[in-house]
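Run log, item B.
One chain of 341 residues. Sequence copied directly from the ordering sheet:
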Amino acid sequence: MFKIFTKQLVPFFCGLIGFLTFAFAFTPITLAADHYANKPMPGIDIHTPTPTSMPTPTPTSTPTPTPAPAPVLTLSQPGNDNQPVGHPGTKVDITGQSFPPSSSVSLYTTVNPNQCRAGGALTQFTSRPVENVQADGSFDLQTTWPDSAGQSGTAYYVCAISSAGGIASGQTFSVAQKVTVSASANSVNPGDSITITGDNWLPYNLQLQVSIVPNQGTGNANAIASTNATPDSNGHFSVNLTIDKNAQSGQYVVNVAAPGESTLTNQPSSTIITVNGQATPTSTPAATSTKGGSNGNGGVTTLAFILGGLGLLCVIVGGVMFAVSGPSSGASSGSSPSRMQ
């Protein structure tokens, strides 16, 4: 019986001892954790390490590309800082900036900048010139205003079409009214002075040459009067010309031209000037005597009569004096002998 009890009790105690051993093995760790966290040992600073947090990565921002500057088209006029103005043939400068490098640009004209696009209401600029853009995106064209945009009193834009689209110039070219020329007289004599006036000769900084030249098919080709003129800001000028004293008679025209712009001229002009023939000087006739013939011997005959008359008078006077002095001389000669006796 005892043996049976012993055999049963030994496993019980062995299991109890194992359980207590297992429980005791984990109890100091828990107590030590509580001890270290709440009751640090004297003289020893216990710092609970703060777990190091991983830094939040900053998202890499994608750089925003800088937009390319918009193309710029400029229309200007040499020597004129104001609004470009003139006629077909007037010199102009067209420059571009910020166009696609090494591309090509086609130029047009338009009266509406909103039409500056492919398929818009455009007019070819001098047979549609194509300008080559430089590597820096610029181009420069020095030309003259075309006849295709020559409506008087109209302001035109220049339009540039490129791969970047269409861009209109910030300035317009105003086409002036047609030029006029007039003269103060339509008939003059050689040596006379005449005044020539003109209007709408723009731009105002033009250097004009005003001449009076023979009409087509008449006279000498050389001018009989010429001078220079500079129009004012309104395109008006007035000059005085003196007709050459040796000018031949005939019809002449007034020619006004801008030497710097060969296409800007009004020759042949409709202003006709007639130069009269040189006046024949009037001579004063010599005075003729009423006596004498018409053959020019009247003067000699008159002188002969005068001298003959004087001679006859001298003969008469001499005869009278001789007659008076004759008796006196005889008496004197008779008395002389009596006194000698």
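Observations after the first pass:
- The chain is about 25% helix and 30% strand.
- Residues 29-39, 286-297, 327-341 have pLDDT under 50 and may be disordered.
Flagged for discussion on Thursday.
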